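SUBJECT: A protein chain and its fold
Encoding: whole-number codes for local backbone shapes
RECORD BEGINS BELOW THIS LINE
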Amino acid sequence: MQYDPIKRSLGKVFNQTPVLRKLFYRLLDLLLLRAWYIRRELKKVNASASAPLNVLDAGSGFGQYDYFMSSLGKNWTITGADVKDEQIEDCNNFFQKIGRGDRVQFEVADLTKFVRENTYDLILSVDVMEHILEDELVFRNFHRSMKDGGTLLISTPSDQGGSDAHHHEEDEVHGFIDEHVRDGYNAEDIKEKLSNAGFSQIKTQYTYGKPGNISWRLSMKYPIKMLNASKLFFIILPAYYILTYPVAYILNHLDVKQKHKTGTGLMVVAKK
């Protein structure tokens, strides 16, 4: 399933005005369960911060988490890095328009080459590492780029079906999102890789348990499959979400409040 074309189509619609873009961010915050977990962790970071925070959003995408972080206070200085030129340009334009361009800036960067020695108090990486084959190199770059005592926050699919992986007759494994280079991380595997990169105090938490997995199918998988089949489904999306989102909303609340022995998502927090 091709996810990037859908994202580009949505971006064209919501990039037309700052008001529409803010609405888009709000919709992403409501629909994406991972955003519920990420925002909870970022609030913890903000509550414990005793000094201004210099942040790297490694794989910033649409910039929704940069908008959220910059809304937490003026002590957040944020650099968004992404490989897609058009998204970097869109994000810089938007944050300039809303008056946050002095605190939030974006640049084109390849995370396998991006290093800023001892610069960041926090590095955020949301649904990025499953797209990068040389993950251990990126983890080492993260470690070099962080200040001592800094925090790394990663959200990624787990190997418990996080990419909705399934076997075909030719014994190949394919995930729901074709752009992924791996079908998720094992909790112990990512701990070992981060430890080898120099990180300590590594904590993992499964997300997208049974409630979250059902919510993901309702709010993401089925709509994306419909949009890949035909762009005409954009017309019926509002009606679809009016019917399904109340259920997804309750399921998201249940997922965030529970501790999961297993899940299709993985949240990782590590220290330098």
User: Anything to note?
Assistant: The chain has a mean pLDDT of 89.
